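Deliverable D5.2: sample structural annotation.
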Amino acid sequence: MLIAAKLKRLLDELKINYSVLVYTHLANLRQVVVADVLTDDKGPLIMVRPLNRPLDLRMLKQVLHRDLSPLPTINVNRLFQDCEAECWPPVGRVYTLPIVIDASVLRLEKVFFTSGSRTAYVRMRIQDFLDTQTRYRIVNCTHNEQAQLCLPSSAPVIKNNLADEFNKLPSNVQKLLAAIKTSRPVDIVPVIKNDVLLQNPCSEVWRHAVLAAERAQSLCKIVSPELDDAKAYLVGLLQNFGLLLFSYLFPPEHRLLQKWLRMNPKASIVRLEQRLLGMGRALHIVRSGHADLGAQLLAHFGIAEDLCAIVRQHHSKQYVGPDATYIKIIQLTNQTLRRQGLGDGDLTLEPAILLDLGLTSEQVTSTINP
């Protein structure tokens, strides 16, 4: 099934000009609109917003004067019975649901939205999209994407019960963090290497962590003998622990994030996090990104402040603090892993980073492939 039966019937009856595209042909994420299904004692409604603009649920509740909250997924799936699970077309007329549309949607010339299938999208002009709706209300209740991306690194992730979330990590991971806390990098790295390999070899997050740790340590050694290569190992290992925590807390959302990374291999995970994790409890946990979440997690377990700072800033291209060299080493490490199909971002080694580290691409290649 490429398109839900009810949706196809409506579009054909209205003689709407539309196309059905498979995911791999979707080029512009900024034109994707999604359906957030919310409810209160007055019943459910569909909130339509661009994928790259997170919903401000508090603002929406104030504007509509309703005590709305996300309708549980299992209940939403019952409303969209001809669709695959969690694939909800933002067309209320088909499913007899009232529609609220964020004003930012109207600025799009074309829109893409799920066809009701996990493998395809519907594309149409914005006016045609509006014509599919019987009645709708326009509101301004989403965040600007750039404002979200520019949150300061110290922005709070969640104020209450953060420790409870952190303590949901498996005991073997907590023991690993406790060992790192109580030892110097140069002492602990030789001890934990075997333990790390035994954590979860089937997990892509762990595989990336292990390879990044080894590679960062090797690159550090050729950058300068004055640098602490054991410290580079630990940062390579710990950089994505925020993502690791997220995978344990929110498996469905994490799978969605990984799916979009696979479909958009050159996209930045920082941007995709903001686009995909737009509402609900997951938003409050990771609203400032996996790097900031990881830094707070490490601080909770008493990991050294310099390691926490590097983890928080490991995607930053503007950081100029005392550990800037380690951050560049991690960024270079991740770029080399990306070329092997692991992680996110561009496939090229950035010349600016190579220049700052005093390395050539040939040196990097010979180091990682001795």
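Annotation notes: The chain has two domains: 5-143, 151-368. The first strand starts at residue 19 and ends at 22.
The annotation will be released with the project's public dataset once the embargo ends.
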